[in-house]
Automatic annotation (TrEMBL):
Residues 1-30 form the signal peptide. One of its GO terms (biological process) is nucleoside metabolic process. It comes from the Eukaryota. It holds the Pfam family PNP_UDP_1. Keywords: Signal. The gene is mtnN-1. One of its GO terms (molecular function) is catalytic activity. This is 5'-methylthioadenosine/S-adenosylhomocysteine nucleosidase. Residues 15-132 form the Nucleoside phosphorylase domain.
Length: 173
C-alpha cells in the first residue's frame, strides 16, 4: 500500500517525461515507483488529444510519461496536446539519447550521462554552405527562474566534484 496520495485529476501532475523512442519510454517506465493507471486510464485527456499517456509516481512527484511520434510535426502536436490535457505541467524533461550515438571518447557524452542545457538549439535551423552547415541564431524562451537556479546548483555540484554520481537526479528538482 502506498503512503502517497493518489492524484485526484490531471491538474495534480506537474512533471512530464517525454520520450522520442519506445526503448526510452520502456526504460523510463522501469523507474516509476507506482503506476496510477494500472486499471486503465483513470485521468482521461482532452478531446482531440492523440497521445497515449502513462501516469505514475517517481519519489514524491506525480509524473505523466508520453511517447512522441516521429518527426517535428508529430512532436509539436504531442507537446501541445500534453499541455492541454495536463495544464499544470511546470517541468518537462526530454528523456533519452535524443538521437545521439554514444561516444567512445572518454570525455564525450555517454549513455547514463545527464545533460542540462541553458538553451535550446533546433537542429535544422540554418543553411548549408560549400564548407559547412551554418546554424541560425535563434533565441529561445528562458526556463523558469527556479529551474535555472536548481540547474545551476546541480552544475556547481558536478563541477566541484561533489557530483551526483549514483544519486537521484530528481532530488535536485
Amino acid at each position: 500500500m502506498s503512503s502517497h496520495q493518489r492524484p485526484a485529476g490531471r491538474e495534480d501532475f506537474a512533471v512530464a517525461l517525454v520520450c522520442a523512442l519506445c526503448l526510452e519510454f520502456d526504460a523510463v517506465c522501469t523507474v516509476v515507483d507506482e503506476f496510477w493507471d494500472e486499471d486503465g486510464d483513470q485521468f482521461g485527456k482532452t478531446g482531440g488529444d492523440r497521445n497515449m499517456y502513462v501516469t505514475g509516481r517517481i519519489d514524491k512527484h506525480n509524473v505523466v510519461i508520453v511517447l512522441l511520434g516521429k518527426g517535428k510535426v508529430n512532436s509539436a502536436t504531442a507537446a501541445s496536446d500534453l499541455r492541454t490535457s495536463y495544464p499544470n505541467i511546470c517541468l518537462t524533461i526530454l528523456v533519452g539519447v535524443c538521437g545521439a550515438v554514444s561516444s567512445t571518447d572518454e570525455n564525450g557524452i555517454r549513455l547514463g550521462d545527464v545533460v542540462i542545457s541553458d538553451s535550446i538549439v533546433q537542429y535544422d535551423f540554418g543553411h548549408q554552405t560549400d564548407q559547412k552547415f551554418v546554424r541560425m541564431r535563434v533565441s529561445s524562451t528562458q526556463p523558469p527562474r527556479a529551474y535555472e537556479q536548481e540547474g545551476s546548483s546541480f552544475k556547481a555540484n558536478i563541477q566541484s566534484g561533489a557530483g551526483v554520481q549514483q544519486g537521484n537526479v530528481m532530488e535536485f528538482f
